[in-house]
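User: Run a structure prediction on this.
Assistant: Running it now.
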Amino acid sequence: MREKISTSSTVYAEGRSERLPQLAEELVRRKVDVIVAPGTPAVQAAKQATTTIPIIFPGVADPVAFGFVASLARPGGSITGLTNYSSELSGRRVELLKEALPRISRVAVLRDPRQPPDSFKETQIAGQSLALKLQSLEIRNAADVESAFSAMSRERAEAFVTLPHAVVTFHRRRILELAEKGRLPSTHSDKLWVEAGGLMSYGPDTIDIYRRSARYVDKILKGAKPADLSRRAADEVRVCSQSEDSEGDRPDDSAVGTLPGGQGDQVRKHNGRTR
């Protein structure tokens, strides 16, 4: 019996979400067996391009609200995957920032307005409870990043938080370059930001989410139907922060929480290193 050899095709939007429909159509023309679409805009584009090719999403905000799946337990249709979404974490990130920098009073929020409003609402609630003045700044493309930091300077922001979105994360290196110039500390949803120079992060482990998404792909290539693969939440929430000295101080336990709805919830700490 001859073993089937799988190959992969990768296309990049390079932070330009307007390119996603064209790229999704390109994958359909290549007659791929499975499409892996990270992020809400990518799943939307793939869904518009095909109704028959299975679509796996690693880390989508709210798949039910966007109509990607019928329910969390039984996705139905041709789309399934894992979500890194929990709006409560957004409020906790603001709290962690305030704990680390108790004197701050003005905080900017970098977000993509195309995301569900829950995360921003939780951020606003946390900011209000901590007597913080929040400045909402929308990021859709590279030009918005430059404009956002100009606005932050005008409003004298003392720190900023980023809400989880693929477009915002794609521009993280430029965002952190400008943050370093302006000496602005920040908190984020993924340790990728800390590894690039951000102060701290609090959220699911993206690498683990992609690893588990690969298992979905494997199951589908072996004959499983997406409709029968339940949508799962990320199991772990991690705190990641920059080292404060040569011994590498870690956040204390008050900075650690669990992601609601995960299966076998765990908490781990990761201590990043300043570059």
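Residues 244-275 have pLDDT under 50 and may be disordered.
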